[in-house]
Design goal:
Elements: E1 5-7, E2 10-12, E3 16-18, E4 40-42, E5 59-62, E6 65-68, H1 77-88, E7 94-99, H2 104-114, E8 121-125, H3 142-155, E9 160-163, H4 171-180, E10 185-188, E11 192-195, E12 197-198, E13 203-204, E14 210-214, H5 219-232, E15 237-240, H6 246-255, E16 259-262, H7 265-268, H8 272-286
Parallel strand pairs: 3-16, 4-7, 7-8, 8-9, 9-10, 10-15, 15-16
Antiparallel strand pairs: 1-2, 5-6, 6-14, 11-14, 12-13
Helix pairs in contact: 2-3, 3-4, 4-5, 5-6, 6-8
C-alpha cells in the first residue's frame, strides 16, 4: 500500500501535513506527536523582521470553529533559521516554510535568505495586506497574485506553494493567476473573514474586530473551492479547511487535492494528524486501494 505523494518533485511519505499557524514550528507539539509520521511540517508564518501581531484578545470560539486575529506574530527569520530549522532537521519529515510580508520586497527578502537553507518547499501566504496598495490583500487581486508569484519564483530555489485566500468572488481566477505566475503548487483555503460580537459586553470578541474563521464550519466551502481549482489548473493542490477526521481529509483528496493540511483540529486534539494518517490507511485497506494516487481527484 503506497501512501507517498509527490508535490513538484518533493516526495512526501504520506499526504498529511500541518496547517501554518496551528502547530508552531513543530517543537511545540513534538512531545505529543511523532513528527516522523507526518508527510510534512508547515511552519508558522516567517517574516523578514519580528512582528508583534495584533492586540489581544485575538482568538474567539465560534459555532463549529474559531476566529483568530493573531496578526502573524513571529520572531523573524533570523531566529527561525537559527532555532527552528535545526530542530526540524532531526526528523524524517519534509519542511515547508510559510512566508509572510507586507510588501513584495519583504517576501523576496525571506525567500532569498531561505534559498540556501535545508528546507524543502516555501508556502507564500498572500492573505497579508499589501501596504503599498492601500491594504488590500495580495490574494484578492488576480494581477497581484500573478505578479507576486512571478517575483517570488525569480528568487526561490525551492518549489513555491501559493496559499490562496477564499475571500474572493471566483477562486478559479486566483488559481489560474498563481499558475500563470509560475506557482509549483497551490494550498487552499486560508481562513474566511468573519466577525463575532460579545452581546454581554457589547463589543467585538477580538480586538481586531474581524478575524479568520476556521474549523469544521468552513469545510464544505473549502472542498468546493478545491474541486473548482483542481478542475481549472494542472498543478497540485494541498487542501485544507476544517479537516478533523480521515473522512474529512479523504473528501479533499477525492475532490482533487494531492495532499491535505490539518489546522484548527490540532487545538482540540493534538493527535489529530497521526489519527488522520491511520484513518486513511484503514480506508485504503477496507476498499483495497493499493496507491493513494488512485483516490486523487477520483470524483469528477
Amino acid at each position: 500500500m503506497n501512501m507517498k505523494v509527490n508535490l513538484a518533485g518533493i516526495e512526501l511519505n504520506n499526504p498529511v501535513m500541518t496547517a501554518s499557524g496551528t502547530f508552531g514550528s513543530g517543537e511545540e507539539y513534538s512531545e505529543l506527536v511523532d513528527l516522523n509520521r507526518l508527510g510534512a511540517v508547515v511552519t508558522k508564518g516567517v517574516a523578514n523582521i519580528p512582528w508583534a501581531g495584533n492586540p489581544t484578545p485575538r482568538i474567539a470560539e465560534t459555532y463549529g470553529g474559531m476566529i483568530n486575529a493573531i496578526g502573524l506574530q513571529n520572531p523573524g527569520m533570523d531566529v527561525f533559521i537559527k532555532r527552528d530549522i535545526p530542530f526540524l532537521k532531526k526528523y524524517d519529515t519534509k519542511i515547508i516554510v510559510n512566508v509572510c510580508g507586507k510588501t513584495t520586497e519583504d517576501y523576496i527578502e525571506v525567500v532569498e535568505r531561505l534559498s540556501d537553507e535545508p528546507v524543502d518547499m516555501l508556502e507564500i501566504n498572500i492573505s497579508c495586506p499589501n501596504v503599498k496598495e492601500g491594504g488590500i490583500a495580495f490574494g484578492q487581486d488576480p494581477k497581484a497574485v500573478e505578479a507576486i508569484t512571478r517575483e517570488v519564483k525569480k528568487y526561490a530555489k525551492q518549489p513555491v506553494i501559493m496559499k490562496l485566500s477564499p475571500n474572493v468572488t471566483d477562486i478559479t481566477v486566483m488559481a489560474k493567476a498563481a499558475e500563470a505566475g509560475g506557482a509549483d503548487v497551490l494550498s487552499m483555503i486560508n481562513t474566511l473573514t468573519g466577525m463575532k460580537i460579545d452581546v454581554n459586553r457589547r463589543t467585538f470578541a477580538v480586538a481586531n474586530k474581524t478575524g479568520g474563521l476556521s474549523g469544521p464550519a468552513i469545510k464544505p466551502i473549502a472542498v468546493r473551492m478545491v474541486y473548482q481549482a483542481a478542475c481549472a489548473v494542472k498543478i497540485p493542490i494541498i487542501g485544507m479547511g476544517g479537516i478533523m477526521t480521515a473522512e474529512d481529509a479523504l473528501e479533499f483528496i477525492l475532490a482533487g487535492a494531492t495532499a491535505v493540511s490539518v489546522g484548527t483540529a490540532n487545538f482540540v486534539n493534538p493527535y489529530a494528524t497521526t489519527e488522520i494518517i491511520a484513518g486513511i490507511e484503514d480506508y485504503m485497506i477496507k476498499y483495497q486501494i493499493e496507491d493513494i494516487s488512485e483516490l486523487i481527484g477520483a470524483v469528477r
